[in-house]
């Protein structure tokens, strides 16, 4: 029997999983605190080490073949080799460290070539073909993050404010002002600038609910945002060599919870690349450790 450990280390929490590689059976799952090495390196490393140790303590008779760790912020931190060395010396096991986004790409595509679209608080698109990685977007909420929850919230409020300037009223005004605890235009603007990024991104839930209730202005915002994200996906697909890998994995809270947005995104991409096949990621990305051999074999 071969056993492998996968860790998905994000900004808010870590999920660690022990898998039987042969039967693809999940043996143990452990969760812990934040794992973003840029936000707090010492805390992230401590949580990663403790997560692995807890898995090993619960399965102390098992020989581990590989520990694959996907860590938020690892590529920009330039600490990949440092983390590999630390974990290898601590556990005396073969360790591989990649970004959490690449782990999602690995998991969503099960080690095959293709693309990954992530739309949560922010957005980004990754692609892989013949062991070459591509990236589009992911510029952050000030410069980009098109089609993210933050983008949806921002565009919805912009629509409301522009309508007010034109002495018109958006069908989103009442619900958005309520979400901002505002009664006037100036109060709404002040609260939006006071809120942190996640608080503003949460307003996208209001837009989604309004769209479900056939609010045409909400539907218009979701259509515009999904089209912007689709255009980035089309940019990614256009960079691939032919034959284009046509599988696109979809991840993130917006794509998971907003059915209309998901549907429109697929439509806009399919209009340009009708051969594309879409896969919604339903498993935690720590599951991607099962497919890491596929990447190694293509090197």
TrEMBL record:
Superkingdom, natural source: Bacteria
Listed name of the protein: N-acetylglucosamine kinase
Species this protein is from: Companilactobacillus zhachilii
Entry keyword set: Kinase, Transferase
Any GO molecular function: kinase activity
UniProt-listed InterPro entries: ATPase_BadF (IPR002731), ATPase_NBD (IPR043129), Euk-type_GlcNAc_Kinase (IPR052519)
Keyword Nucleotidyltransferase recorded: no
Domain ATPase BadF/BadG/BcrA/BcrD type: 5-276
